[in-house]
Fold these 4 entries.
Entry 1:
Amino acid sequence: MSAIHVADLEFKLMASPGIWGGHGTMQFRWDRRIPWEVLLVLPTETWHISRDTLTEGVDFADGDGLIYVRHVEEGVEIVLASPKGGEAVLLFDRDDLLDFLDMTWQVVPAGAETIDIDSGLDKLLGRAS
């Protein structure tokens, strides 16, 4: 299995409170070498979110800062704030999101996340490993 898993998930964009406007696709990227992180990628910006926060938000509400995830009747809303200003509310299909997350948990279960500090420091300091 590849170290990186990518899923293109469809979303609806909230035009104004309670009214869904456009739609699009967001890329969800997960790397087994950095298992606690999921990248949410649009052509113009990338957000980093913890896998735990994304998982919690599927059924409840979680997040802070630039990303907030919450379960709603229609699916799962992800609220993205931009450091440049502005905010977007995206609605995702709950089952699609769960399929993506389930795969990540099967590859690296909760509590099995590890980090190789020495290799990370070697890369940071430009030393061969």
Entry 2:
Amino acid sequence: MNVIERYIRYIIGGVFLAAGVIKFLDPEKTSDIIVFFEILPHEQAIAFVYLTALVEVTLAILLVIKVKPKWTGAAITGLCFVFVCISLLGWLNNWNLACGCFGRFSYGKFDGMMTLRNSVLLVMSAGVFYQSSKREALRKSQN
């Protein structure tokens, strides 16, 4: 693994770890967004936020320590794709609220910058997934 890929893994892992830990410590901000859009009632929204936080923290750790790198890369890339879609939907529909992704530390609104940040994470995670897949295919061909 080259140095750039390692740093990208650390950056993505750090973002996912921070988002997950903040959701664990303060699930209300994110659950308020879920309730606002009438996706789930409050109690279920809180449970969903805790589950999301658990997934984010787990994937962050797996990504950084390179456990099941192809699977982890695919899962993170899939989540980043969902994040891009949600931010794009919010931007196009002019949702004037913070996403709640980082709990009370969320700022701004659904706009072009949020979509750009999520798109950069998507490209970075897709690169990690591609490199992991390439390495696994090379390993299999050598056996």
Entry 3:
Amino acid sequence: MKAGSTSPRRRYCIVGAGYFGLGAAKALRDDGVPYDHLAGGNGVGNTLTETLMATSSKRSIEHPDYPVPEEWPEFPGEGRIRAYLRDFAREHDLDGKIEFGRSVKGARPLDGRDGHSGWRLELEDGEIRHYAGIVLTEARTQKPRVDLPGHFSGKRVYATNEEETRDLEDERVLVIGDGNLACAIATRIGRRSRKCYVSTRGGSLLPETLLGVPLSELEERLWWLSDERFLGRLVGPLSRMILRDQPPSRLLRRDLLEEPIVSSEALHQIRRGALEVKPEVARFDGEDVHFVDGSVAAVDAVVHVPSERDVALPVGEELLKYENGVPVRVGSVFLPGLTNCYLFGPLITRGGSGRIISEGSEVLARAIRAQEELSHPLVEDLARMWPPDSRLPLSPAAVLREIRALRRCIDGIVLYGRFRGYTAGMPPAIPPAPAQHENASTARKEALST
């Protein structure tokens, strides 16, 4: 363990073993921070993240210290991304520490207030654990609103990935949802369905490449690509294909530009008629779907897709503040009023996350170290410089700028705290979980043996 590392009694918990979860685990291990790693699935990876990153180039998804194979195509796709994650975990000896099949049901501060004294985690099987802090790298998507007016006589499906829509081949399908996830599922359905519609509130549509260069790589190198005014001029002609009945001023609305959809295949399917974009649904009438613009379409199935921004965190809702259904955050990672609770992954970016995860996980480890040293919540200092908001980052380049600014702020806060005497030394140990819940799996084994 490194000199000056945290006490073994102050252990942290990483929730999720996807792209961001593995990055966080490597950073904490390299920095000597004790941690447990819980994952609800049975293997490395996160289907939602992999789907959203399927339109990212191989150079933009790789970790700087673990390059992707040279022979891979420019856009690897979900299968190769999943294989890359497994190899990354094996190469850095991270997979052996992950407890698979351990979903977190809820998380609450031990002191009932802000979490400065630690966190109480309840797992789905009833086990209770206490930690100094928690790192949430994935979150459950909330089910979308399905109580639309009228009666639909066909099939209705709730889907977060392509596998859940495989039985809709050769049918007329309507996908209802906003953002990159809904677009990704709609384009996959459009390949094999008789006709596919996608109902959305609007947004900007971008190709995966610009002048032959992957957009996710251009955004990292050219910061002005994420500038709102430039993006509006770039996507205006493309978006008018989708929002053809909307006034041009709607194309420059900030809430639409913050979540651009990236898909060259969607553009191709729209042009050849395999995919047709519709506005919001007004009502159902048997197999007919009536839209707010007065148009009608007959469909055999409706697929409801959650927005990637509508996430359900295991932290109690009364501890969080929401704006437009999105948790308010400080610098995308910290939750106002909560100490030692970090949101690393959900709501950060739509793709191109290799460097974001590498640099962001290092900042995460710095934040944990800083909070161990400071006598007051780090998030309070950051909130003074970084007003809390629910804004979603516009591009990977914008996220990287935010992460680098966070690193400078954290380093400055620690230096100022040392100068002013705002450090408290090693914080107290976290109290153990109640004995009756300390190891639920052991209790089950003992019950079976008797």
Entry 4:
Amino acid sequence: MGKNSTYEVDPGKAIDFSPKSLETFEYRPSPSCLEKVAYAEQGLARLDERLRFHEYSDIVSGYLMDLDAVASGRISGERVSLRDLFFWHFFLTLSNANKEIPEFIEINRPDLSASYVEGYRKSLSFLKAHKGEMDLAFLLEVYEGLLPASDKSGLRTSGVSFGESGQKGIDLYEPARPDEVALLLKNLLDFCTVSYSTPLVQTALAHFRFEAIYPFENGSDYMGRLLSHAVIMNRGLESHVVVPIGMYAAIHVAMHSNNLFPYKAKRQQSQHFVNRAVEDFLNGCCVCADYAVSISLKLIGEIQKITKRWDSMLGRVRPDSALKIVMHAILAMPIFNADYLVAATGRSSTAVNTAINQLIRSGVARQISTGKRNRLFEAPDIIALFDWIETSMFPDDAPCRDDFSYQSVSFQNG
């Protein structure tokens, strides 16, 4: 075996860098990379343990899933905001309860029925509720939840190539043929069910292989991230929280894309090249995990500051009072009206309206609609927090993944 400074590989051995060859490729992480992996995994484990008994664990986890959904949309070119998600979820809650929709919501809400961002958010909740499952039928169920109602595509049934055809010097990578996709995907999911190496190493290899297969005509980028979450959950690093692993990639889309696409060349590659390509992606996964943990800790701290400020503004509040229960509800959904809170808390309309008036007088809540009928409110502290996260973390002019020419996709009959 030939040696380099970080790991042993055979630099002269060429392999066919394809979805099939990746099934048997033995990745050898360097010591320096394993140090990064250990640090990232320790951060995820500590965060998960911290939220295990946290008073607002479900609320924080829900917001982190919102952040990951919005980030995933940015990577794929969807400019859905956190406020859009809040309005949409509020609208769905009232619609499902057959309650009247406030005019302000009807005018200002986005229609996310055709959005992959909303589907991704639902799929994260589905994964969290079904940890441990990992077969092709389950993955297709997750995919069905991701897809907008107007999109009924399934496993890819046509050929696909990457790059700009006709441009000199560019070798196009061709993922698996349509008739190979199901078996390759089944083998990948079998790999995901065993305990291989460390959790992040297994997650990175699974995501890398998934991208090489490119199993779906639509939504494959979202599904690759959902698969990563499923592996991390099954390995015990997301037992009580779902971290926004897409946030760093949404800010640094070029890095994310470059780390995923080095194998897209229609030629054999040296074993050293393949090992380095996988390692680059794994290093990127570690950075994404570290960033997700730091954002999660920041959010936990800010939520705690807000709740302490609310307690000081409202004075002594009984833990079992309607006011305290309503406070908890608006902490989870910062856009609300009386009907929403009645449905969310199970308290009477009279008790809810009394609590709302107390929140308004104290400055915890404010009315954002006009008129006295079917009033709509927001919790400005929560809205300001997420506006700050969004404007500071997601550049308005950030490119999406399809902005890179070597990633352009064309489908052929096949």
